[in-house]
Amino acid sequence: MANTLFAAIDMGTNAFKLLIVQAHLPGKFIPLLTVREHVVLGRDSPSSTISTHSQNLSIKSLQNFNKLIQTHNVPLLHTRCVATSAVREAQNKAEFIHSISETTGFKVDVLSGEEEARFSYLGALQFFPVFENLILNIDIGGGSTEFAIGLRGKVEFCLSLKLGHVTLTQQNFGDEEAERASNMREYIRNVIKESGLIDKVKNIGFEIALGSSGTIRAIEKAVFKGYALDFADNEALLSECKRDWKFSIEELKSVVERLCKGGEGQNVRRDGFFKRRSESIVAGGILLDEIFDLLGIKEMLVSGYGLREGLIADSLAKVFDDGYDLNANARFRSILRLATRFNSKRITTSAAEIASIAREIFEGLRKYKELDNDGINLTVDLDEKDLENLEAACLLHNIGLSTGKKGYHKKSYHIIMNGNHLRGYSAEEVKLIALLTRHHRKKLPKLDDASFNELEEAKQKFKVLCAIIRLSVVLHRNGYINYREMDFSHSHEGFKLVIGEERGLNYQPVVEQCVTDKFAVELTHELDYFKKVLKQELSVELKAPPFCSNESSKGSY
């Protein structure tokens, strides 16, 4: 698995972020781990020097990232670490970068504003099927805002302006709320007008405006949650099913108007909703509002991906000699959008790990079917679409947890079936994926039930895929997660799955409660079902004890 793992680190002005993914050609990657460290380099911006305190925090965060990268065995050549506005503008950036290299081994690439704009655009292409559209991509960062107009993965125009939500917050625009907002707006308008951006955008044009930053995602969430109203949206599940990652200029203005209202009550409400981002969200909202007005934007799509995902896509294209297709697997991205919409980062990581286990078992079954070794008699032929449907079910199996643990597998089924989320999938494929999420736990499926009528010929494939996802969930829930070594083999005695300990991982000593009697019962139950479906025994050898202290391996069940 290691040669398909990639990592990207974004040393941003407002936070440091790590992304680890597993790539599958020609154009798909699945996020395995997302980590955010609250390092605010932008606090040092008035002095144009990164302070010793900030340097120490940065190095500590990067050392933590390095441990995670090594734990996942991501190759050094597949790891990229970039810095943006705060480091780009710092007088002591050379000293800072050298210190990072000496202490962590990371070679930091300080991006130009134009490079940052390009990568943000590439990242957005991995989230929405907009490859064929002329896109205006906007990324509001802590120290700068990047604009890119692109078509089919090629950037026609890009520009970086020194307008960031952190740096704007730190500037003195007056003492009163209204005065600060008015002066900030005037400052933003002047910077944008003097840059020539308005004329350039008008001359080139765009079909779709896309936002790809944390600030814009926070505003979209505020729109969706009814932040501008006097009450919160209590029908979260129903609303989530209907919303589709966008907001209008009217919705933006209503949120910004509420953000700019003064008073202790409003400040408390803002802090509670936006949390760490609350300190600079007012500036971010005003900035986006002015951008909408000046560039004539009426509606914006909001990408869950950005700079880091763009770095990953660029790395894949380089490593695989342009074998990575930016426009491939557009339909699978609708799976990732749905998972991102409902799941927290921790739950998304858990689902991705289960998908990795399931892929290993699936590939093992398919390999021995193709070799026709030892009399294996699979009653169905497994192909790439079956694997994609299995991975989709793994990534979506726990989206129902957004409204509580009880019966979440049933809620996952209903979200998939009732939201028209899965673009490009046939009705039968959507039903197959939904049924796999419904039956990944609890009672075994009964194929004579009316809910299976629409599957027709896919019933036999469903049984095989269901056996795989159920086994993968049980293994993951008990600590046997994706980055352990896995070996799937076959002999005259049947199939064998060996999960071993990877070198360099610091496992906890075996504790009796880690491998419980409950796990043994669950595993035996799923192995019996596997045998019933595949007509072959499957033995599982667990060489490494589960890593019980790892939060991501515990899952949320």
UniProtKB/TrEMBL annotation:
SUPFAM superfamilies this protein is in?
Actin-like ATPase domain, HD-domain/PDEase-like
In alphabetical order, the GO MF annotations are: pyrophosphatase activity
Identify the residues that the record assigns to the Ppx/GppA phosphatase N-terminal domain, covering every copy.
Answer: 29-318
The Ppx/GppA phosphatase C-terminal domain sits at 331-479
Which of UniProt's keywords are assigned here?
Hydrolase
Protein known as: Ppx/GppA phosphatase domain-containing protein
The UniProt entry, under InterPro entries, shows: ATPase_NBD, GppA/Ppx_hydrolase, Ppx_GppA_C, Ppx_GppA_N, PyroPPase_GppA_Ppx
